[in-house]
Amino acid sequence: KAGVTQTPRYLIKTRGQQVTLSCSPISGHRSVSWYQQTPGQGLQFLFEYFSETQRNKGNFPGRFSGRQFSNSRSEMNVSTLELGDSALYLCASSLKGPSGANVLTFGAGSRLTVL
Amino acid sequence: GQSLEQPSEVTAVEGAIVQINCTYQTSGFYGLSWYQQHDGGAPTFLSYNALDGLEETGRFSSFLSRSDSYGYLLLQELQMKDSASYFCAVVTGKLIFGQGTTLQVKP
Fold first, then answer.
1. Which residue of B31, B95, B97 is in closest CB contact with A101?
2. Any idea what DSSP says for residue A99?
């Protein structure tokens, strides 16, 4: 079966712009979570959606937002981009969400560069 | 808050055994997971410990001790393809990752 698909894979933006990233989970998976990966901070949790509802949120400013559609596809948006937002944004899907032994399957990520 | 600590780098030779430790501070969690990430790739699931003790999956084993707030990943019969970053993560309804350990396997 198809894996987790993230688009776009690479993008370059300038400070002040906004960006929308997309994630298509594995068919049948209802949970989508987002992570920011940077060399200095490692993998940091952004938020998790299940059945179109945000269930958990990490410690990121309100410029970071997301949503999930009825087909479980998810988008995340970053507004008023800052240089520090340059990172690899990873999406992961699972059947029930990151609890217990539920395995997360990650996409290849969207690499954002802010100039 | 919740935090996890791992060594930043580990080097070992092909065929050897290596242990990657993970200590954590968290107030309640389902268990400890381990993920592998090759350079430029996506993290992939390796193992999960809900209970104290050792879980074995082929060449990889993972251990958890809740009383010691400690876990480790044991890789046996190291192969060159095991060169990657390894992340421990506490599962709390979200995954809280450690900073990752870069393992370099040398011939």
1. B31
2. S
Minimal C-alpha gap between A55 and chain B (Å): 9
Cα separation, A54 vs A38, in Å, equals 23
Specify the pLDDT at position B2: 75
| Closest residue, chain B, to A100 (C-alpha) | B30
The pLDDT value given to residue A41: 78
Smallest Cβ distance to B30: which of A4, A56, A100?
Answer: A100
- The size of chain B, in residues, is 107
- Of A89-98, B72-81, B84-93, which range is least confident? A89-98
List the one residue out of A86, A90, A92 whose CA is nearest residue A112.
Answer: A86
Are B97 and A44 in contact (CB < 8 Å)? yes
Strand partners, A54: A49
- Provide the edge-to-edge strand list for the sheet that holds A19-24: A5-7, A19-24, A74-78, A64-68
Residues of B in contact with A56 (CB under 8 A): 93-94
Those residues whose C-beta lies under 8 Å from the C-beta of residue A61, and which sit 6 or more positions away, are none
Residue A24 pLDDT level (bands cut at 50, 70, 90)? very high
Render pLDDT for B61-83 as a digit per residue (tens, 0 to 9). Answer: 999 999 999 999 999 999 999 99
> What integer is the mean pLDDT of A5-34?
96
- Whole-angstrom Cα distance, residue B42 to residue A58? 20
The alpha carbon of residue A5 is apart from the nearest alpha carbon of chain B, in Å, by 11
